[in-house]
C-alpha cells in the first residue's frame, strides 16, 4: 500500500512513541500537518517557534520520551535555533520536522527557500553544529536509511536533536507504507536487562570495579559528585545506597541537583560557583577521594576550572559519554559505561566484602559552622536584602516537599534554597543558558504529565517568552510563574559594578504593570512585597490547577555574593 511521505513521517513518529508535537504551521509544511489531523499525536500551537523548541525540550526532560517540534521553512526553522542549541548542549532527544520549498524551484528564489541553492540560506547548514544529524530529504529512494539513522540517534543513550527537512513536493510523493517495517523504532540495548543489571561483565570491567572498590576502601573521607548523568541513567537510588552504605557525603552539579534527597544528613548541597560553597570547602579541605558520576565539570561546576578542586585527590570518573572522561581533570580511574550498571556492580561486590563505614563529622553541623562563619565575615552568599526570597523558598520547601516540578531560568536562588529530592523534579536552564526558557519548557512538560508546575524567571527573561503564557491558557495547562522583578538584567548590572566601575549600559529597563498584564492573559496575579504576602499566597492561591503570575520585588542593587569573574 502506498501513502504520501507526509503520512509516512507521521506514522513513523507514532512508532517512535511521540505523543505531542509543538510548533507553528506554514505553507511549506501543511501536508504533514494535514496528516497529523487524523493522528493520535497532539499538535500544540506555540506563539513563537523558539517557544515550540523549548516546549519540546521541557516535554523530553519531564517524560524521558522523544520531544518533537515542527515548523515551516525559512524563518520558521531559523526561529528554532536557540531552543535546539539548548537541546544539543543537554543531549536531548528532539525530532525537528521542517518544511522546504519544492525541489523543482531550488535556486530560483522561492519564497522562504532555504535550500542553499542560488544564494538562498542553507537551512541544514545552520543546524549542522547543533544537531546530531540533519537532512533535506530531496528523494524518497533513501528515506529508509534516513529514518533508520534518525532512530539510531534519538533512541541512543547518548542522544541529541535530529532535523528532517521535507520539501513540499516530496511530502506529497507516494511511497510504500512497508518502508516503516524496515525502520527500527524501539530502543535496542542488548547490554542490559530490563531491571538495569548487567548481563555480562568483561574482564576489563571487572578489574575496573575492583579498582574502584580498592580506592573506596583505602580512602578516609571520600565524596561523591553526582551529575546530570545520574538522573539520565535513573541511578538516584543507587547513588543514595552507595552513600549510605559507606557513609559518603554527596554533592551535585547544578543539573544533578536532587540525585539524593537534599534534606539528607549526607547531602552537601549543590557544587558550583553560584552555590553556597559547602561542597567546595569539603572537597578542598576534607576529602581524599572524589567519585565523579556523570558530571562534566563545566565552568559552573569546576569553579572556572580551579586546579585546587581535585588537584591532590584520587579521582574516579564514571560516564556514558567517553568525551567527558578526562576532559577537564585527569582521573585515576575512568569507567566508560552506564552509571546505573556500574553502581549495581559496585554495590553487589561491596555486599560480598567487609568495608567499614567512613567516620566523618556531622555534615549539618559542618554546613552550619561554615554558614555562621561566612555571615560573621560578611561573605554569606545571600545578605539580608534577600530575606524575602529566602522566606519564599522556605515556604515552598514546607508547602511542597514532593510532587512538584520546577523549571528554573534564574538558577542561583533555587540552586541554594530549594530542597530537591527524588520526590520532586528540578530542571535548571543549563544547556547554553538561554533566557526565556523556563515558561515554555514548563508548559511543554505539562503535556507529558500534568503536575504542580513552577517556572522561575527574572523580569528580563520573562519579556523574551511571556507570549507563551497564552499557550498555557489555550490548552488549560496549570502553571505558577515566579517572577523576580528588579527592573534590571541582574547579572549584567552585577558585572558592571564589579568589573566596569559602575558604567551601566543596557542593563536597566521599565517593566509593564504585571497585574494588568496578567489580567489581559486571564490569569491570576499575586504581588509579594513582604512575608505577610507569602502567608496569603500559600494559603489562598490555587497552585495546583491555576495559572498564576507571582511577582516578587527585589532590590536591583542587591546581588548574591559570588564572583562570576566576567
Walk me through the structure.
With 566 residues, the chain is of the alpha/beta class. It has three domains: 2-182, Rossmann fold (3-Layer(aba) Sandwich); 203-364, Rossmann fold (3-Layer(aba) Sandwich); 381-553, Rossmann fold. The protein has 22 helices and 20 strands. The strands form four sheets. The protein has a six-stranded parallel β-sheet with strand order 3-2-4-5-7-6, sandwiched between helices. The chain has a six-stranded parallel β-sheet with strand order 11-10-9-12-13-14, with helices on both faces. Strands 16-15-17-18-20-19 form a six-stranded parallel β-sheet, with helices on both faces. Strand 15 (404-408), helix 16 (412-417) and strand 16 (425-428) form a beta-alpha-beta unit. Helix 9 packs across helix 13 (339-350). The longest helix has 16 residues, at 203-218. Mean pLDDT is 89; it is low at 188-204.
Write the layout of secondary structure elements.
Blueprint: E1 2-4, H1 5-15, E2 20-23, H2 30-36, E3 42-45, H3 49-63, E4 67-71, H4 75-78, H5 81-89, E5 94-100, H6 123-127, E6 133-136, H7 143-154, E7 162-167, H8 168-172, E8 174-176, H9 203-218, E9 222-226, H10 228-233, H11 236-246, E10 250-252, E11 267-270, H12 278-285, E12 289-293, E13 314-319, E14 333-336, H13 339-350, H14 363-376, H15 387-399, E15 404-408, H16 412-417, E16 425-428, H17 438-446, E17 452-458, H18 459-465, H19 469-474, E18 479-485, H20 490-499, H21 514-521, E19 524-528, H22 531-540, E20 547-553
